[in-house]
C-alpha cells in the first residue's frame, strides 16, 4: 500500500504550494470530494521509485468553536487519522504563533510520526530565526522553500524513511499467488457496496476471515467462485463481528485509493438513483491513472423508470467516456439480479490486463497498421514506426521504436490502440502505448 503523508498547519503557511510541488502539477489533484470540504485534496507523488499519497488540508485551528473553522478542523483531524506521517508546516518568516503551539500540542498528544517543516526559508538554512520553532517540542526543524523547491527532497526522505523500509519488508514477505484475482469494489458511500459484498459472501457461503499482516487496517476477504480464487480488497469498511462480516459505509478516500492501487481489477459501483456524480468521475479518473482493469456496474437499476435509465446511459457515455473500454452491467445487489455476468466481465478484464503479447505479432500488427494508414508528416519528416514489444502488464504497455516518434499524434495513437485491442481482444483494461525514438548517431557531430 502507498504511504500517506498529510500536510497540516495554520492558514497561509504554504501547504498548497508544497502540495503542488510534491505532485509536480496543479492538475495532479486526485479528488476534491464534495462534502469533505473544498480544502482537502488528495494527490499522487513520487520520490525515485517510491510512490505515496499526499493530503492537502485547510488551515487548522484545533481550538475553533464555531463557524467554518470547526468543519475545517474536523477534516484536518480526519486527514491526520488517515495518514502514516504528518508534515507540520510553519512559516519561517512569520515565526511561531499561538496557533502553531495549539497544533503542536495536538500532534504531540496524538503521538503520530511528525516532521516539522519551516516553509519560506530561503536563505535561512543556518539562521537563528529557525531556533524558536524548537519550542514546539517536535524535534528538528527542516527549512524548505516550497515555491523554489529547496529542501523538498530532504523533507520527503525524512518523512518516508521508515515507511519505505517497512513497505519493502511487506513486499518481500508477501508472496502473491498468480492464480488469485485481486478485486476492489469502489464507489461513493451508499451506492450499495455493503449490500453487494454481503450478497456475494452469503450467496456463495464463503469462509471469510481477516488476513494477518495486512498494513494500515486494509482488510481482504479471500473467496472462491466456480473454481477461481479471488481476494476482495475492502473499500466499504468491512469489520468482523463474530463469524459474520458487517459492511459499514464509512467513507475513507485514502482507503479507496490504496485499495485501487492494490487491485488487479476494480469494480466501480454507480447508483442508478443518483446518476453519475463528480465523485464517481474522480474515482474513475484515479482508476484510469493507476492503470487498473475496471468493470462498471450500476446498482439499484430496479429502482428507476425507463426515462431515468435513458438519462443515466447518456451520463455514463458523456462523463465516463474515458472508460468506454470497460464492460457495463445493470444490477440490483439487493435482489441479486444481474450478478452472474459481472463475474464473467471481471475474469475477462483480468485476462486482458495480464495478456501476453509476443514481439513478432506486435511488430506484424504495427507494420500492417502503418501500411493501412501512415502517420501524418510533421514538416520535412514523417514518423517511422519500426517495431514494437510489450513493456509491462496490468496495465498492458506496448513500446514502439522508430524515428521522429515525438511527432506521432494522439489520434494516430488511438488508431493503433484500436487495432491492438481488436487483435488481442482486450476488454476492461487500459492500454498504454509508449513511443521511443532511436538516437541520432550524428547528433553530436559538427
UniProtKB/TrEMBL annotation:
Give start and end of each EngA-type G domain: 3-167, 181-354
Report the record's Gene Ontology biological process terms. ribosome biogenesis
Keywords for the protein's UniProt record, in alphabetical order = GTP-binding, Nucleotide-binding, Repeat, Ribosome biogenesis
Q: Name the positions where GTP 2 binds.
A: 187-194, 234-238, 299-302
Q: Which GO terms describe its molecular function?
A: GTP binding; ribosome binding
| InterPro entries assigned to the protein according to its UniProt record, in alphabetical order | G_ENGA (IPR031166), GTP-bd (IPR006073), GTPase_Der (IPR016484), KH_dom-like (IPR032859), KH_dom-like_a/b (IPR015946), P-loop_NTPase (IPR027417), Small_GTP-bd (IPR005225)
Q: Which superkingdom heads the taxonomic lineage of this protein's source?
A: Bacteria
Q: Binding of GTP 1: at which residues?
A: 9-16, 56-60, 119-122
- How does the record describe its quaternary structure? Associates with the 50S ribosomal subunit.
What family does the entry list?
Belongs to the TRAFAC class TrmE-Era-EngA-EngB-Septin-like GTPase superfamily. EngA (Der) GTPase family.
Explain the purpose of this protein. Answer: GTPase that plays an essential role in the late steps of ribosome biogenesis.
Q: What is this protein called?
A: GTPase Der
Q: Which organism is it from?
A: Ramlibacter aurantiacus
Q: What is the lineage of its organism?
A: Bacteria, Pseudomonadati, Pseudomonadota, Betaproteobacteria, Burkholderiales
